[in-house]
Amino acid sequence: MANPRTGVLVMSYGTPESMEGIEEYYTHIRRGHAPTPEQLAELTERYDAVVGGVFPLRENTNRQAEGLQAALDAAAPGRYAVYQGLKHARPYIEDGVAAMAADGVKQAIGIVLAPHFSTMSVGGYMKRAQEKAGELGIALQEVESYHMHPKLIEALVKRVKDAYAELEQKAGSGQPLKALFSAHSLPARIRDIGDPYERQLLETSAAVADGAGVTDWQFTWQSAGRTREPWLGPDILETLKEVAKAGYKGVLSAPIGFVSEHLEVLYDIDIEAQAVAKELGIQLVRIDMLGTDPLYMETLADCVEQASRDVFL
């Protein structure tokens, strides 16, 4: 029997459920090729540094899915049912689509917990979801990006203002400060195909900086993959060195390409970048991540409802 509710497939990168699951997770990222002992040891050490053997990171995505369900229920009671689909961990994207089909869902909206579109990121999620949805007879409408949604910008502006005030206090009155907006790097070849990822990130950064009254800022990259091809740069660790050389005493880190606390934030910024900043003698303060901020949940709900109106209503 067909389910009259519209399914909402919430997709994200995924993270292991425990320290024991790191090897399977890493193998999936490497398209079925097991990591070398050295690679596995390095990733395990990073996770251990962040979570200390206890693994709460999966709960972040679970709470966001629950928060979106609550926001949708408040806006349109009984109309939507939220499902999860992860890129590199269970439940995989295909599992989420299959769960909708098992519940009799015939129409669905796909949305990724990443505001900025790239063919290599969000586009890949959507391709997998569409293939499985087509196989199971579900009409799936995509939310490609929401990088300039007013509520998203509002939530980020507040975080930048709060972090900037903390940075001013730590660095000392009148000290030169720089805001660094960042996101996950991708292979530089995306520029050759006119991919919108970089442009969208700069648009979000400019809007947030303007809203927060921050005039001295720049965009940088982080968390590049270790492959032979060139990735977008410069990396934040190099940018920190340039900033220190230019005489800045404080840096605000705004990793706006991410919406939750995970390895790229808790290790790459809070441990790795923080250590470099300390060596350079500069203060580094990171903004709080969006998590289940009501404004972010409303952003996602607004996008789902708009997509639903455009196609299904």
Question: What is the structure about, briefly put?
Answer:
By secondary structure, the protein is α/β, with parallel strands linked by helices.
Explain what you see.
The chain contains 11 helices and 8 strands. The chain has 313 residues and is α/β, with parallel strands linked by helices. The protein has 2 domains: 6-146 and 293-311, Rossmann fold; 150-286, 3-Layer(aba) Sandwich (Rossmann fold), CATH 3.40.50. α5 (122-136) links the parallel β3 and β4 (139-142).
SSE topology sketch:
Elements: E1 6-12, H1 22-29, H2 37-51, H3 57-75, E2 80-86, H4 93-102, E3 107-112, H5 122-136, E4 139-142, H6 150-171, E5 177-184, H7 197-212, E6 217-222, H8 236-245, E7 250-254, H9 263-266, H10 268-280, E8 283-286, H11 294-311
Parallel strand pairs: 1-2, 1-3, 3-4, 5-6, 5-7, 7-8
Helix pairs in contact: 3-11, 4-5, 6-7, 6-11, 8-10
Net shape: globular
Q: Strand arrangement, largest sheet? A: 2-1-3-4
DSSP strand (E) fraction?
Answer: 15-25%
Number of domains: 2
Binding site for Fe(2+): 184, 264
Organism: Paenibacillus lycopersici
InterPro entries: Ferrochelatase, Ferrochelatase_C, Ferrochelatase_N
GO biological process, one term: heme biosynthetic process
